[in-house]
Design goal:
The protein folds into 2 domains: 2-135 and 301-307, Gcn5-related N-acetyltransferase (GNAT) (Aminopeptidase, 3-Layer(aba) Sandwich); 139-282, Gcn5-related N-acetyltransferase (GNAT) (Aminopeptidase, 3-Layer(aba) Sandwich), CATH 3.40.630.30. The strands form 2 sheets. Strands 1, 2, 3, 4, 5, 6, 7 and 14 form an 8-stranded mixed β-sheet that branches. Strands 8-13-12-11-10-9 form a 6-stranded mixed β-sheet. With 308 residues, it is of the alpha+beta class. β12, α11 (261-275) and β13 (280-282) form a beta-alpha-beta unit. The chain has 12 helices and 14 strands. It has helices at residues 12-20, 31-41, 86-102, 118-123, 146-152, 155-171, 187-194, 198-203, 206-213, 215-218, 261-275, 289-293; strands at 2-4, 46-51, 57-64, 67-70, 83-84, 107-114, 130-136, 139-141, 175-181, 223-230, 233-243, 246-254, 280-282, 300-307.
Length: 308
């Protein structure tokens, strides 16, 4: 078992090899994400990046106030886990636990672990480990057409969605939906709209704004921004990650002067994802009612607590 202290570029080839063996490809699992987190949020923590002897698994951990946890940011990364080959993770975790104790950790708290992870399977074998459902990431399985998507909704939900979409379009002329990628993305649109929400405004510290603003440079190919305008005025905005055959809705904001704009733009992104031939639309963490009204099904994420 090897241990590295910081997110230096010499670790990148090792990380990428582990990622190649990972069953799922989330942006939160990449070296770039964790390095970006470290640059903005690392404060007085002991970081250890563990790799097994074959470089098939990377486990990025940090110790803060004697508590070991995943790097990557529990508030900003919807999924966190050991990264790499499933059949190697158990052995890697077994080797790491005594090292964490030697480094001064007295407790391990792991958050945002996706359902089906072999990390969960390993800790289920530890008698004093506690595993609880932390949240859910409601997810849609997308059909081949938007009409089919509508037909697959519950009858009441379908009727309500059509009514709300028609009402919004009737009240606002000259609506336009703009998908943007690469250098066309302007995160200031999103940030300003997010500030209309009191909770999100508090969340948007200067450090958090800097973190979000730089994401388009880091994820040039996979980050998409969707902008809704009404007579050239921006009324809603979302950003999402396009990975493999999935679209992951990451953050959104809307102008409160345009009630219904938030739902409208999300439905337009679902239609866009279907047009692109994607098979999954992931709303990421949160059990807001609208996600289920749009047909999403729960997909749990878990937390592990273990005294060391």
């Amino acid at each position: 078992m090897k241990s590295f202290i910081q997110f230096t570029d010499d670790i990148l080839p090792i990380w990428e090899k582990a990622l190649e063996n990972e069953n799922v490809q989330y942006p939160f699992f990449t070296f770039s994400w964790h390095k970006h987190w470290y640059a903005h949020f690392h404060t007085n923590e002991h970081v250890s990046l563990f790799t097994d002897s074959d470089n098939c698994v990377v486990i990025p951990l940090s110790i803060k106030d004697t508590v070991a946890h995943f790097t990557g940011g529990e508030e900003i990364a919807d999924y966190l886990d050991a990264i790499g080959s499933d059949n190697k993770k158990a052995a890697a975790w077994k080797s790491i636990l005594p090292i964490l104790v030697a480094q001064g950790a007295t407790k391990l708290i792991l958050k945002n672990i996706p359902k089906g992870s072999s990390t969960l399977s390993f800790f289920q074998t530890i008698s004093n480990a506690t595993i609880t459902q932390e949240d859910t990431t409601p997810t849609l399985t997308l059909p081949s057409s938007f009409d089919t998507y509508l037909e697959e909704l519950d009858r009441k939900d379908r009727h309500e969605l059509k009514r709300k979409m028609k009402k919004f379009e009737g009240e606002h002329a000259l609506l336009a939906f703009h998908p943007r990628n690469g250098s066309a993305i302007d995160m200031n649109f999103l940030i300003q709209l997010m500030k209309n929400d009191t909770k999100k405004s508090t969340f948007l510290t200067p450090t958090m704004i800097a973190f979000f603003t730089e994401l388009p440079k880091i994820y040039k190919g996979s980050l998409w921004q969707f902008v809704l305008t009404q007579e050239n005025r921006i009324v809603a905005c979302t950003v999402a990650f396009h990975t493999d055959n999935s679209l992951l809705l990451y953050n959104s904001g809307f102008d409160p002067k345009y009630p219904g704009a938030g739902l409208y733009i999300k439905v337009k992104t679902i239609a866009w994802a279907i047009e692109q031939g994607l098979t999954t639309y992931n709303f990421l963490q949160g059990n807001e009612r609208y996600k289920y009204d749009l047909g999403a099904k729960d997909n749990a994420v878990y937390q592990v607590d273990l005294p060391l």
